[in-house]
Amino acid sequence: MRKPLVMGNWKMHGTRASVHKLLAGLVSEGAPASVDVAVCPVFVHIPLAVSLCEGSALAVGAQDCSHMAEGAYTGEVAAAMLVDSGCHWVILGHSERRQYHGESDDMVAAKLAAALAAGIAPVVCVGETRDEREAGEAEYTVARQLQGALRGQASLHSLVIAYEPVWAIGTGLTATPEQAQAMHAFIRGQLEALPGLDAAAVRVVYGGSVKPDNAAELFAQDDIDGALVGGASLDAQDFQAIVAAAQG
């Protein structure tokens, strides 16, 4: 039985005041033992978030990391630095990184290797654009991204995959539960082809305009193991409702 994971990706939002307010609401409510819950603030707010979540069941993650361990890489943050700051998770290959920063599958693979070497749990994002789906290339795109990131890795310990159809991110559109389940099942089938990986144990979460009113129906699908939540994670009440839905 895979334990659900609900992770909030705050993206480039927040001030020290808003982080205090949001986490005060989340920490006071607590996280159910049956669900892993995490938040991913911007780099500068990670130490504050870690401090505010100390002693609670709420974990802290980062939205990205460098593919390099250290060195003269201005503006970059190494995976080991995230671990040193108290992070448990890191999001890799988010569609916004691919779109706005030109990250290739090879770059995502290098970042994944760095994260695994540092001992931080990776959430690798995959997903197709609207044009790719309408052209019948959704599965091809997702398979390419998976293979590009995962094949040849020395270890895939603690791996989580996030399926995020690009056409449903921040648009208000959401894949139907049936569409999401079909792709999640496809992803699990692709993972089965990787040597040494127990595909049945890997959590595959959905990301794409997840809200309190659609979360339960998504989580009821056999291969959907939680959510990578965007906008709704900035509202404590909405995020808690999504976490509650993940309890089943």
Structural overview:
The chain has an 8-stranded parallel beta sheet with strand order 7-6-5-4-3-2-1-8. Strand 1, helix 1 and strand 2 form a beta-alpha-beta unit. The mean pLDDT is 96. It contains 10 helices and 8 strands. It has a single domain, classed as Alpha-Beta Barrel (TIM Barrel), CATH 3.20.20. It has 248 residues and is α/β, with parallel strands linked by helices.
Short description:
With 248 residues, the protein is an alpha/beta fold. The chain has helices spanning 16-29, 46-53, 79-84, 95-101, 105-118, 130-134, 138-150, 177-191, 212-219, 236-246; strands spanning 5-9, 36-40, 58-62, 89-92, 121-126, 160-163, 203-206, 226-229. Helix content is 41%, strand content 15%.
Rg, nearest Å: 17 Å
CATH architecture descriptor text: Alpha-Beta Barrel
First and last CA, distance:
13 Å
* H and E order: EHEHEHEHHEHHEHEHEH
User: Which parts are unreliable, with pLDDT below 50 for 5 consecutive residues or more?
Assistant: none
State the share of residues found in helices, binned by percent. Answer: 40-55%
Highest CATH level, the class: Alpha Beta
Q: What are the main properties of this structure?
A:
TIM Barrel, alpha/beta, 248 residues
Give the helices and strands, then pairings:
Blueprint: E1 5-9, H1 16-29, E2 36-40, H2 46-53, E3 58-62, H3 79-84, E4 89-92, H4 95-101, H5 105-118, E5 121-126, H6 130-134, H7 138-150, E6 160-163, H8 177-191, E7 203-206, H9 212-219, E8 226-229, H10 236-246
Parallel strand pairs: 1-2, 1-8, 2-3, 3-4, 4-5, 5-6, 6-7
Helix pairs in contact: 1-2, 1-10, 5-7, 7-8, 9-10
